């Protein structure tokens, strides 16, 4: 924990100020910090010229990083809806986050809120921190009532999701599996391109994905896979 010395606080201020200007790069991880805590920290280190008079004052010492204001009650990873960048939270690159945690620690019982930088846009690509993840409902073909919810980045691949589902349902490594998109109308679409991302595959919030295990006799419970017909044809 960083106490006292103005030089220490000056170092904190200059280090974080520089890291806040880090350019977004696809695949990098950034972290959310509650704006209320961050504003208190800015006062303590004299970040802005008008806060210099409070620099090092123990009355404005921010204490451990506290992101509880960003989270739904009783959930260490679910963000409240409609949070706004710079109003409710600020984003720090990994190095900036690690430094703040080393100086102030993280409130007990909380976990870091880490998010990936993804590329967006059909023609003109731009990078953005994906603050809100896509929630998918996962189940097994033999028991579709047992649904497990997980959050994924739009940049995660079908292969990544399948591995996560296999882990959740303890499917042995040697077991062959297939993944299906289940629609409300009880129709199923095979997800057979492992390198496709969630974005590529057009998966949406609340989508149900079903994993199917091959029978011992080499057949599939759902029968042979047939590609979904293109509605435009």
TrEMBL record:
Residue stretches making up the DUSP domain: 7-118
Entry-linked Pfam families: DUSP, Ubiquitin_3
Single Gene Ontology BP annotation: proteolysis
Keyword Protease set for record: yes
Keywords of the record: Hydrolase, Protease, Thiol protease, Ubl conjugation pathway
InterPro entries: DUSP-like_sf, Pept_C19_DUSP, Ub_USP-typ, Ubiquitin-like_domsf
GO molecular function: cysteine-type deubiquitinase activity
PROSITE patterns: DUSP (PS51283)
EC number: 3.4.19.12
Reactions listed under catalytic activity: Thiol-dependent hydrolysis of ester, thioester, amide, peptide and isopeptide bonds formed by the C-terminal Gly of ubiquitin (a 76-residue protein attached to proteins as an intracellular targeting signal)
Similarity comment: family membership: Belongs to the peptidase C19 family.
Protein name, entry field: ubiquitinyl hydrolase 1
Species in which this protein is naturally found: Anas platyrhynchos
Gene: USP15
């Amino acid at each position: 924990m960083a106490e006292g010395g103005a030089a220490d606080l000056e170092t904190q201020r200059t280090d974080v100020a520089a890291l806040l200007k880090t350019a977004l790069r696809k695949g990098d991880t950034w972290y959310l910090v509650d704006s209320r805590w961050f504003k208190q920290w800015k006062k303590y280190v004299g970040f802005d010229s008008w806060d210099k008079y409070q620099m090092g004052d123990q009355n404005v010492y921010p204490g451990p990083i506290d992101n509880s204001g960003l989270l739904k009650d009783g959930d260490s990873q679910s963000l409240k809806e409609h949070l706004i960048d710079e109003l409710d939270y600020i984003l720090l690159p990994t190095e900036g986050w690690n430094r703040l945690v080393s100086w102030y620690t993280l409130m007990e019982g909380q976990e870091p809120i880490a998010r990936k930088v993804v590329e967006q846009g059909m023609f003109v690509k731009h990078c953005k921190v994906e603050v809100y993840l896509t929630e998918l409902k996962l189940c097994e073909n033999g028991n579709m009532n047992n649904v497990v919810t997980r959050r994924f980045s739009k940049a995660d691949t079908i292969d990544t999701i399948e591995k996560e589902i296999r882990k959740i349902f303890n499917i042995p490594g040697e077991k062959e599996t297939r993944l299906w998109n289940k629609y409300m109308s009880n129709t199923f679409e095979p997800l057979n391109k492992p390198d496709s991302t969630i974005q590529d595959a057009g998966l949406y919030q609340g989508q149900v994905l079903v994993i199917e295990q091959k029978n011992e006799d080499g057949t599939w419970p759902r029968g042979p896979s047939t590609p979904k017909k293109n509605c435009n044809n």
